[in-house]
Amino acid sequence: MTTALLRHAHTSWSRRYLVNGNAATRVALDDEGIASCLAARHQYAPMTVQTWATSSFLRTQETARLLMGDEAATLVVLPELDELDYGVFEARPFLDYAAWLHEHGPHARVPDGSESQRAGIRRMLTGLVRALDLPSRRTVVCHGLLASFLHWQSERGTADPMPIYFDDVQPVVPRTWHDDDLRRLASAALDNLDEREVIDPGPFPPAWARAGQ
What Pfam families has UniProt attached to this entry (predicted)? Predict the structure, then answer.
């Protein structure tokens, strides 16, 4: 069986590189995000997706519902897939958070938040593993951090240090794995997420985020 994973469609916040890690703040898709989902819907018609898994955020659920259309499928909300808790940086530019992250490192809990970046990634990975137990075929609509991290993890070399920033991935572009391969990828990633890891801080700000300046 297979699992497709994709980042939610554009919102006015993501276009301005503002962070939103509080599901109570209901950030909806913008016109471009809606249009991209409608344009991509045909990719899913022949896949007969049985289960869609999303976070508890409005933008992931809107993306899933637009992509599913009238298809008879189940939508399952998995809070473990939620966006990172940004604490004091909520609703602020990503680069404000990134500057703090660069200084304090990915294992530090964000002020007024509930988790560090690495703890948030670990939570998201546990949500992904949980999604793999849902009826297949399945599609997971997640946030940018998980999609970017999985892309990096799948391409990394055995000696590559784990970066703080991960290359951005395009919204609504699915990547499909065989379930066993994705489970192994998530398991290997969970094994690597500890405070003994070698961290590559990389340049600041990350090149992909400079458009938000």
Answer: His_Phos_1 (PF00300)
Domain membership of residue 33 as a residue range: 2-212
pLDDT in tens, 129-177: 999 999 988 999 999 999 999 999 998 876 788 889 998 899 999 999 9
Q: Mean pLDDT of all residues in the chain? A: 90
Burial 108-123 (b: 16+ CB within 10 A, else e): eebeebebbbbbbbbb
How far apart are alpha carbons 136 and 119 in whole angstroms? 28
The pTM of the full predicted model, rounded to 2 decimals, is: 0.91
In CATH, what number is assigned to the domain containing residue 119? 3.40.50.1240
CA distance 129 to 170: 22
